[in-house]
Amino acid sequence: MMNFIKNFKNDESGAVTVDWVVLTAAVVGLAVAAYSSIETGAENLTANTQSFMAKQNPSQ
C-alpha cells in the first residue's frame, strides 16, 4: 500500500493534461476577446457607411 501511495504521489502524467486545459482555456478566452473587438469595429464601420450612403444624392 505504501508503494502505491509513493508511486501515485510521484506520477506526473496528469500534469500535462492540466497544462493543456489551461492553455486551451486561454486561447478560447483570447478568441472571444478578439471576436468582440472585431464585431464592435464592424458594427461601427457598417453604421458609418450607412450614414454616408444615406447622405448621397445620385441624381446630381
Descriptive terms for the model:
60 residues, mainly alpha, 87% helix, rod-shaped
Using the alpha-carbon principal axes, give the shape: rod-shaped
Briefly note the structural class of the backbone.
mainly alpha
Point out poorly predicted stretches: none
**Spatial extent as radius of gyration:** 27 Å
User: Can you write the helix and strand succession as a string?
Assistant: HH
Largest sheet: none
Q: State which percent range the strand residues make up.
A: under 5%
Query: What oligomerization state is this entry in?
Result: single chain
Helix content: over 70%
Number of strands: 0
Total helix count?
2
Overall average residue pLDDT:
87
Written account of the structure:
Helices cover 87% and strands 0% of the residues. With 60 residues, it is an all-alpha fold. It contains 2 helices and no strands. The model has no long low-confidence stretch (mean pLDDT 87). It is rod-shaped. The protein has helices at 2-10, 13-55.
